[in-house]
Amino acid sequence: MKNKFLTKIFALLLIIAFSTPMSAIATTLKFAQISDIHYNPDAPRPENAKSFKMKFYALPVLDDAAKQIKEEKNVKFTLVTGDAADRPLSKDFEFIYKYLNQVLPTPWYYCLGNHDVAANGDLNKQKHIELLSKINPKGFAPDKTYYTFKPKKDMTFICLDAAYDNKSTPQGYLPPEQLNFLDKTICGAEDDVIVIFMHFPTVYPTVSRDHDIVNLYAFNEIVKKYDNPILVLGGHFHANKIRQTDNIVEVASPSLTSYPIALRFITIDNHSDKTVFTFDYRETNLKDVQAIAKTKIGWPTCGKDSDQNAVITVEKVCKCGCGKRNCKCNQK
Q1: CA separation, residue 213 to residues 164, 267, 323 (Å)
Q2: What is the pLDDT of residue 317?
């Protein structure tokens, strides 16, 4: 009697499994992105400074962001997309890297920003590698400032470093070895969702000729070759922007140091026939600091509602050879 009952249960489970469309089965990943903390222990109070950056409040704002990440469910890690400190000084970055270890409730991965290395500081890329290898060895590469990791079997994350070494400039540049690394990594990722993160975004929230990636065309030539769902994340502009072009979704995220003082939660649901990216924008709870920051800003940084919160679906190219997206063959 017991065996008959178990047989019926097993048969029912098989019916349910085979009657569930493959498109309904998804791999899910949720992570946070924070950017541009600009920690500076010597920063004056904002009422005594002309800067639009709330550097004086960098640590309280970071504490609040860390608290929001802790209270959010299922966040696997945090991407910190550059400019953790405001000056390329070893003592400032050593402090803020250790502070991130203390306050963030998740593992964190780092990419270099233009404030991280410059001619007027004592910190170059090699010293960053040495610092992060000691302080956060699992969230950086042991010998390079660009790297890759796989948090899920069908998702590949690629960190790029477009900051100049020993040069003070808000512009970015991707060297040939990194472009080759990007090309080979995507090529070897087969059908994976690709997430590229770096300090410099590939979509610009405002028109700026001095904050761009000077060889962005070379980056675009590579990513446009591939049909993978591709997400590109950056910071740098301290402003919101989200744009989808076919299978590529480009995102510029806000800063923790200037209005509106915000972070993002990003969820990836990868199905057999599509990938869904969900962007959840969260402003700081320190409303007094945010109010001061708003008086200091002189250009639109919040963007449209669709640049803050969005759900974007990338339909996958069918593998039957038709070359179409959203083909019924994908949904079998």
Answers
A1: 11, 27, 32
A2: 86
252's enclosing H/E stretch is strand 248-252
Q: Angle at which helices 58-71 and 90-103 pack, to 10 degrees? A: 30
At 17, the pLDDT band (50, 70, 90 cuts) reads very low
The answer to whether the beta carbons of residues 324 and 318 sit under 8 Å apart is yes
H or E element that contains 95: helix 90-103
For tokens 């010293």, the residue is: 127
Nearest CA to 278 out of 287, 266, 295, 286 is that of 266
Q: What gap in Å lies between CA 150 and CA 88, rounded to an integer? A: 30
Residue 48's pLDDT is what?
Answer: 78
Q: Is 115 exposed, middle or buried (0-12, 13-18, 19+ CB in 10 A)?
A: buried
Kind and range of the H or E run holding 283: strand 274-283
Answer whether 300's CB lies under 8 Å from 254's CB: no
Report yes or no: 138 and 144 within 8 Å, Cβ to Cβ: no
Cα dihedral: 302, 160, 256, 140 (round 10): 160
HSE-up of residue 118 (Cα within 13 Å, Cβ side): 16
Contacts of 53 (CB under 8 A, 6+ apart): 38, 43, 86, 255, 257, 258, 296
Structure confidence by residue, pLDDT tens digits, 47-94:
878 899 999 999 999 999 999 999 999 999 999 999 999 999 999 999
Q: Which two tokens stand for residue 182?
A: 């990007």
Predicted confidence band of residue 22 (pLDDT cuts 50, 70, 90) = very low
- The one-letter amino acid at 53: K
Among residues 93, 92, 184, 81, the alpha carbon closest in space to that of 139 is found at 81
pTM over 0.85: yes
Residues 62 and 37: their CA atoms lie apart, in Å, by: 7
